[in-house]
Structures are given as structure tokens and as C-alpha cells.
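Fold it.
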Amino acid sequence: MNVSVLGLGIIGSAWAKNLIADGHAVRCWNRTPKDFPHFFAKIDDAVDKADVIFIIVYDPQAVQSVLNRIVHKLGPDQLVIQSSTISAHWTHIFADQVEKTGAKYLEAPFTGSKIAAENRQTVYYLGGSSDIIQRARPILEPISSKLLHIGALGSASTLKLAMNLNIAGVAQTLNESLALCRRAGISDDSFFSALAPNVSHSPLADLKEPKLRKADYTAQFSLKNMAKDIRLALETAAELSISLEQTAHLTGVYEKGLAEGWADDDFIVLARTLDK
């Protein structure tokens, strides 16, 4: 297929490399020019006559900026796969813009960080019609471990935000419980050995244990991205008239981390706030 990848961050870069390896005619674009295979400086050239267009950028405003620049190039027989983490509110707005051109729109947020993307272990949450999902399967299945059809358009975006609330909450509790033990003189070895058979043990703890032990905060998923997702989740909760008190409190912790200048570090960097 002729495939465009718009957004060459941690995830977009990994997907693009795998799509190239799969033999697709891939054209890549990024707001900031990059030395990257099949890179096109002009977004019009990157999407021209593309069968499938991936959008993987930071937030709703970034998605809108991309669409503003490519909507005149869209038409029938094209499929836009929007994988940026946004809310259902924005999903409906963007789908309407794309579908007015005759092109199809698939919401496809995902779970799995850099390692998962590189190793074709991304799990996609899909929202939209079964027909559109079937059309996307040949390109999504080889770069993923699972495709989950969540429901109607907008449902996948809400589920993605809900999953990230789980991750943020578990990670912060992990940070705080480890800090408590360290302050009490309990070794990291004892902490993680006790956590392993405990009912609260999680794959997230396994993923972040090496980083916490070494204070290695290079990004697998950045603090600024998780902060953005928490904000979108709270906006969605307000639209649905539900109060998420723990999440609302957590925003204050994230604001402290951002104020410290840790935006581009892994979100587990909030462990540093407990050293102060």
C-alpha cells in the first residue's frame, strides 16, 4: 500500500520503520524535519495519493493542525487512521472533517510504549464501523499484537483515556510506596521481591522497576503526554457528569513535575518529587 505516517515521535518512528520493513511504500512527515527514511519535507507530498494516512501527534490541537494542511488532499478510497490520544469529543469533530471529503476515518488509539511499538506488540483500540476496521486490518495486524474493536466512534478514545488513568494511578502509587520503604531503610531488592508475589503486582511495575532502581528517566512515555491525557480524561468526565477525585488530585503532582522541567522525561520521573 501507499502509506503516509504523519508524526515521527517515539511511536510513529517505530511504526514507520516496521511498515517500511513490511514492503509498503511509506512516506513520512514530521512538523520538525528529521533525518529519517522516506522523509518528505512537505506534508502535501507525503499524503499525495496515499491509500492509508496515519496521524500520530501530540494532542487535539496538533491533530487539527495536520488536518488543516491535508484535508484538501483527501478523497474517496483514502483511509485516515487517527492514533493520537484525544477525547471522544475531538474524535467526532475530526471524523466529520475527514468524512466530508469522502475519505474514511478510523479512530485507533493504542497501548504499548516504545518497546512494544518496535516489537510489533502494539494493542490498538478501534472505534468505528466493522467495514472500516476490516479495511485497516491488513496494515494494522502485522505491526500489532491485538486489535480490539471497542464500539462506535468515540468509544475507543474514551477507553484509551481510562486505561491511561489506570497507568498513571498505579505508577504514582508505585513511586510513593517505594519512597516510603526507601525512607525507612528498606532496600529496593526487598521492596521488589515483596511486590512480585503481592496481589498489587503489575506488568507496569516490571516495566518500570529497572528505571526506578537506576533513576533512569529517559522516556518510554513522557510526562507531558500523560499530563495531557489526564487533562483530556477530566474534560471527558465533566462532559459525562462524573467526578474523578483521585485523578483530579493527581493533576497537581503532574503540574509539579512539569514545573520542574521534566516534561520530556518518562512519567515515572515523578519519583523525584518524593526526594524533596
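The chain has a mean pLDDT of 96.
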